[in-house]
Amino acid sequence: MSDSIVIIPTYNEKENIEKIIRAVFALEKKFDILIIDDGSPDGTAQIVKGLMATEFADRLHILERSGKLGLGTAYITGFKWALERTYEYIFEMDADFSHDPNDLPRLYAACHDEGYDLSIGSRYISGVNVVNWPMGRVLMSYYASMYVRIVTGFKVRDTTAGFKCYRRKVLETIELDKIRFKGYAFQIEMKFTAYKIGFKIKEVPVIFVNRREGTSKMSGGIFSEAFFGVMRLRWDGWTRKYPKIQ
Fold this sequence. Notes:
Helix content: 40-55%
Strand order of the largest sheet: 3-2-1-4-7-5-8
Radius of gyration: 17 Å
Distance between the termini: 26 Å
Largest sheet: 7 strands, mixed
Mean pLDDT: 88
């Protein structure tokens, strides 16, 4: 067993899933993978289980859920699964190659070698590093992160990033059952909570490439949750008692 697990939520990712699994397993640094599949009708889970049966029984794992239950609940399910085991470094990554598997060792090094508690694959720490996104989407994402910083006082530049490495103690300390958001506001809430508790955070510059295969899962509801959720987080920052680092 590796000291690191990469959690990848999936819904209809048959075009990408085998390629991303093989790309992660081809890295020199050893990572295990946990797929959280939300009842993909396209057979994503069957592809994963085929790879488990033939090649990667010890390193590849899957949890199947009954339907689309939200990105946040998928990750929290995965976090709890990883914490029941001995993994010290727990990663979030998309299945569609928008996050480059070759950046995983850099996120790992920020925590393992440099002593940070949370490392974030950041699109905006060194300019705007986004490829093949429509300009409207780039501007929306960039200014959404700016909006979060203005409202909350939170200094992270890429607040909605979904490419991350957590030290185990971060997820043990955050009260996962109190995380309320399910869409992309989940990504903001997890970072903000880690920051309020006092964990050390580093942004690692990465290049984000829009998916080439499959379809995006973005929706207007995701952005409205994030917009109003940030106001709620600011209120929490004033009123909530956060856990202490043990």
